[in-house]
Amino acid sequence: MPDWKQKVRKNLRLLAACSPEFAEQVTEELSGHLEDIYEDRLQTGMMEEAALECALNEAKYCRGNWLAVRLLKEDCMTGFTGKIGLPGLVTFAVAMVIAYTLEALHIPPKIIFFRDSLFLSLPIAWMCALPVCGALGAILSSRNGGSRLDRMISASFPAAMFGVVFAFVFIVGCVVSLFVRGYWQWRFVAWGILLWWTGYVVLPAIPLILGATVADQIKRVRGQAA
Amino acid sequence: MALVGAQIKRGSAEFAVLTLLANHPLHGYEIAKRIEQQTGGVLRFDMASLYPMLYRFERKAWVKAEWQTLPNGRRRRCYRLTPSGRKQIAPLRAEWRAFFQALQSITGFQNA
Fold first, then answer.
1. Helical H runs in A62-185?
2. Nearest Cβ partner for B90 among A71, A145, A226
3. With contacts defined as CB-CB under 8 Å, which chain A residues touch B28?
4. pLDDT in tens, B35-89
5. Quick one: A69 and A102 in the same domain?
6. Could you say which of A77, A95, A116 is where a domain stops?
7. Which end of chain B is less packed: N or C, by CB atoms within 10 Å?
8. Is the pLDDT of residue B112 over 50?
9. Does residue A69 share a domain with residue A52?
10. What residues make up the domain containing A127?
11. Could you tell me if A182 and A152 lie in one domain?
12. pLDDT at position A101, please?
């Protein structure tokens, strides 16, 4: 009896690029498949050499690297990458394209001024388009088996990214202010960050999640109708 | 017997596998073997087309896979259809019925 796992590994060298658990699972499953072919052919009265040839042909015929690439894709699309990471990045990219398009069309955000030069920037036109991005994130996550929480996180990714950027700016500013005396006036900084967070994180998250919720509902209703 | 073209086969693969799994859980080789037997060899899935599809189904939570030890002591990964996977069958069936009816109305051949 040949070592079927070794035959699979030999034909699917690219499996080494997959996660070890996934590669091991695939190797065991495919080697079982080859073993079943071999056993089946023996039961039909085929000679041992011919049965072996049949099983090995299946392994050769499966176009090793092409199969390995497809399996690698499935491995990458499982878990965080497929359920949150990629849908979130696509959602963010689309939201950014919309933002730049609006800027190119000279549609500025609405600015509300407060005292002490503080202002709230409200990208209203952008926010009107965000439900579409939210729905896109939820659909992409759902296609990869994302849970409701995964879908909502993917949908709200653009807002989360802005949140991270503002937090980063805040932290860098804090660090710089330790070395440069009077670099920041804390009252202004706190208000500034709060206002930017409101305009680009909290408020945009609402249409994003709204879009995701609507997409979820449509999918659910379609599922029930089917 | 004429083998069906790659495009049609690819499109029908999801429907065939989901329908088979709707009856009872099966492991990969059993799925390939049953499809080949039940279609008289017209449809045949090799490892390269079957397993990526099964993993895709698993990713979409249409099937749930678990290792089982067979009476002969070998371990096989059995695929069980989930309620979400079961929901996919009806729309696919409707699509294929519409497709065959459309084809039939053009070509005029029966039992398309």
1. 64-77, 80, 86-104, 124-143, 148-155, 157-179
2. A226
3. 29, 32-33
4. 989 888 888 888 888 888 998 898 888 999 999 988 878 899 999 999 989 988 8
5. no
6. A77
7. N
8. no
9. yes
10. 80-225
11. yes
12. 95
**Contact (CB<8Å) B48/A61:** yes
Domain B8-107 listed as CATH 1.10.10.10: yes
pLDDT the model gives residue B77:
93
The answer on A170 and A128 residing in a single domain is yes
Which residues does residue A121 pair with via DSSP β-bridges, in sequence order? A111
The predicted structure's pLDDT at residue A126? 95
What would you report as the CA-atom Rg of chain B, rounded to the nearest whole angstrom?
15
Q: Are residues A93 and A194 in the same domain?
A: yes
Average pLDDT over residues A39-45: 89
- The token duo for A62 is 């499966």
Which of B28, B75, B90 lies nearest to residue A33, judging by beta carbons? Answer: B28
In order of A73, A181, B52, the CA distances from B81 in angstroms are: 22, 65, 16
Strand partners, A112: A120
Quickly count: other Cβ atoms within 10 Å of residue A112's Cβ.
12
- Residues of B in Cβ contact (< 8 Å) with A58: 46-47
Q: Is the pLDDT of residue B2 over 60?
A: no
Q: Which residues of chain A make contact with B46, given a CB cutoff of 8 A?
A: 58, 61-62
Where is the domain boundary, A77, A92, A120?
A77
Please tell me the total count of domains within chain A. Answer: 2
User: What are the DSSP E strand ranges found in B1-112?
Assistant: 26-27, 63-69, 75-81
Residue A112: enclosing H or E segment and its boundaries? strand A110-113
Q: Measured between CB atoms, which of B28, B48, B59 is closest to A29? A: B28
Contact check, Cβ <8 Å, A145/B59:
yes
Which of B50, B80, B51, B83 is CA-nearest to residue B64?
A: B80
pLDDT, one tens digit per residue, over A155-188 is: 999 999 999 998 888 888 788 877 877 767 777 7
